[in-house]
Design a protein that fits this description.
Layout (H helix, E strand, L loop, with lengths): L4 H24 L12 H12 L16 H16 L8 H28 L2 H12 L2 H7 L5 H21 L2 H17 L7 H11 L6 H25 L2 H4 L1 H16 L17 H11 L2 H21 L4 H18 L13 H15 L6 H26 L7 H12 L5 E5 L13 E5 L8 H13 L2 E4 L5 H6 L5 H11 L5 E7 L4 E4 L2 E4 L17 E6 L5 H8 L3
Parallel strand pairs: 1-2, 1-3
Antiparallel strand pairs: 3-7, 4-7, 5-6
Helix pairs in contact: 1-4, 1-5, 1-6, 2-3, 3-4, 4-5, 4-6, 4-7, 4-16, 5-16, 7-8, 7-9, 7-15, 8-9, 8-10, 9-10, 9-15, 14-16, 14-17, 19-22
Keywords: Cell membrane, Glycosyltransferase, Membrane, Transferase, Transmembrane, Transmembrane helix
Protein name: ArnT-like N-terminal domain-containing protein
Organism: Candidatus Woesebacteria bacterium GWA1_41_8
Length: 559
């Protein structure tokens, strides 16, 4: 039976809508993870910034690294909800922020679809890219955090889409709208300025003829106009760049220093002695993308570069997409601090390039062998991505591991016990209970001999020791030369010399369970922010052999 053009359009529309709906479900499900406990420190920073606002008296969020658009959006949403129902005025700003993170991440699926269609002119492969992004673990995770990454990704990708549309249609309004979207992105996170060169060269890329004289002047003025539009949009949304410029400059100096490794703060120690690019390809991308999208995306990028080398003048849209990806990925990859969130805006591009590769492999004319290879790669990327996404999503279908650990402690550790644990966490396990909790700062153990005495004293008095996550012990045992004292402590703890024995370990690794069969993947050694916020590993040690203060001092000093 022949399918009419109208039926084809209806089928296509249903397919697109289904992909977006799937992405929406994966992003909105369990956005209240943590069961009223919030474990991401950046969420607290944003919530505190929201609470500082008082319209119209004080609208300075004093959170310059994250801009103000996210903070304002949460604040005014709470205000509107409060006017609708007084009870809604007390809703936690973190939950409102997570709602918007999930929403903007869902909208990004649509932008991925439209942008892929622009460079392939094929609805099937546009749908494929959208599907891959809809189920992408890294995007799903960022959508569950009240952080700017989902917002920034949407606005930057939208700006790129509008530029690409302008280049292909020569409709001026698309360029101006792209400048507006870019201005919002900068007001959301100042690091979005990386995209500025794309906006400024867009009018030159749009011009089909060689530029000279008046034509060059007109295009140059158009470029300046776009920059000014973006500038005024940014200032309108983020006015305290100038109104509180001293604090803004101070904040930027500090954030730039931390990003560059000067100073090395406690939460950037994992990046000491790491290699740019290699770190992202071993510690971030296999987890955030999955192996299928990573490998096909990489091949797609290489293919796009080859295509551009041969046909740069006629592939202006592809040129803009590739250049944007390279700017976002390479610039952020060479910082000292290589957090997952720094390259989060590149996640959609890996899906786009994966689809772009398959589009060319399936293209006509093609040999049977090439088509078989394309079919195999398509099957593998769909299977591996769906499988890994299902495994990662299981994290949000379970009770948070810190709550599980706390409940176990209530049942199995006597009330009044002294629990020694590590500092540097937003909240410490146990989250509640009648216990004496001693929180020791292992990050400063190397700096002052008095800290060694304090640790020995705490060990003598403690009944249990709790490792809250991989943050301290994994980083410090890897960097023995940098942190010999804390590395020695964890070595002695793990080999039993301190008289403590591990009695329980709690994890929430990505897993897949089918009937009685279950497989999981230990992802604890990925870039630490991948796991420490929503699925850390908790380890509980019990003192089975009490020792004297003098003994602990000798062991800690490695005597």
């Amino acid at each position: 039976m022949k399918i009419s053009l109208r039926d084809k359009k209806n089928i296509t529309s249903v397919l697109f809508a289904s992909i977006v709906l799937l992405g929406l479900i994966l992003r909105f499900y369990k956005i209240d993870w943590g069961e009223s406990y919030y474990f991401h420190p950046d969420e607290y920073h944003i919530a505190a910034a929201v609470d500082r606002l008082d319209f119209p008296n004080n609208m300075n969020p004093k959170l310059f690294s994250y801009g103000s658009s996210t903070v304002y959006l949460i604040y005014f949403t709470k205000a509107v909800l409060g006017n609708i129902n007084i009870n809604l005025a007390t809703i936690n700003p973190i939950l409102v922020g997570r709602f918007y993170s999930a929403l903007f991440s869902t909208l990004t699926i649509i932008v991925v679809l439209l942008l892929t269609y622009q460079i392939t002119k094929n609805e099937a492969f546009a749908a494929l890219a959208a599907f891959l992004f809809a189920v992408l673990p890294g995007a799903i995770q960022q959508a569950h955090f009240t952080t700017p990454e989902s917002f920034v990704t949407f606005w930057l990708l939208l700006s790129l889409l509008l530029i690409v549309k302008a280049v292909s249609s020569r409709v001026g309004k698309f360029m101006e709208l792209s400048a507006v979207a870019f201005g919002i992105a900068v007001a959301t996170k100042i690091s979005s300025l990386i995209f500025l060169p794309i906006l400024l060269i867009a009018p030159f890329v749009q011009a089909k003829t060689k530029l000279s004289g008046n034509k060059l002047a007109i295009v140059t003025l158009h470029s300046i106009k776009l920059g000014l539009i973006a500038f005024f949009i940014t200032i309108f949304i983020f006015p305290h760049i100038f109104l509180d410029h001293t604090a803004f400059i101070s904040s930027m100096r500090y954030e730039t220093g931390v990003g560059g490794g000067n100073p090395v703060v406690f939460y950037t120690r994992q990046f000491i002695n790491t290699t740019p690019i290699a770190f992202q390809f071993t510690k971030i991308l296999p987890y955030t993308l999955g192996v299928g999208v990573l490998l096909l995306g990489l091949a797609g990028i290489l293919l796009a570069l080859i295509k551009l080398f041969r046909t740069l003048k006629t592939n202006r849209k592809l040129f803009l997409v590739v250049l944007t990806f390279l700017l976002l990925f390479l610039t952020n990859s060479f910082f000292f601090a290589k957090w997952t969130r720094f390259i989060a805006p590149t996640f959609p591009f890996w899906c786009i390039f994966s689809s772009y590769l398959l589009f060319h492999l399936f293209g006509k004319p093609t040999s049977p062998t090439r088509r078989k290879l394309a079919t195999l790669l398509l099957t593998l990327v769909l299977l591996t991505t769906t499988l890994w996404s299902s495994m990662f999503f299981s994290i949000y279908s379970k009770v948070d591991v810190r709550i599980t650990a706390t409940r176990w402690i209530q049942t199995n550790i006597p009330k009044g016990s002294v629990l020694l644990t590590e500092s540097g966490n937003t909240l410490d396990v146990p989250l509640w209970g009648i216990y004496t909790k001693k929180v020791f700062d292992f990050y400063t153990l190397e700096e002052n001999p008095i800290n060694l005495v304090s640790l020995a004293t705490d060990l003598e008095k403690s009944d249990y020791f709790i490792i809250q996550s991989r943050r301290v012990f994994v980083n410090h045992t890897r960097l023995i030369d940098n942190y010999p004292k804390s590395a020695n402590f964890y070595k002695q703890l793990l080999n039993g010399e301190l008289g403590f024995v591990e009695i329980k370990e709690f994890d929430s690794f990505p897993e897949l369970q089918i009937g009685a069969y279950k497989i999981d993947l230990n992802d604890e050694l990925a870039e630490e922010t991948w796991s420490v916020f929503d699925h850390p590993v908790i380890r509980i040690y019990k003192k089975t052999k009490p020792n004297s203060l003098n003994y602990y001092e000798k062991i800690i000093n490695n005597q």
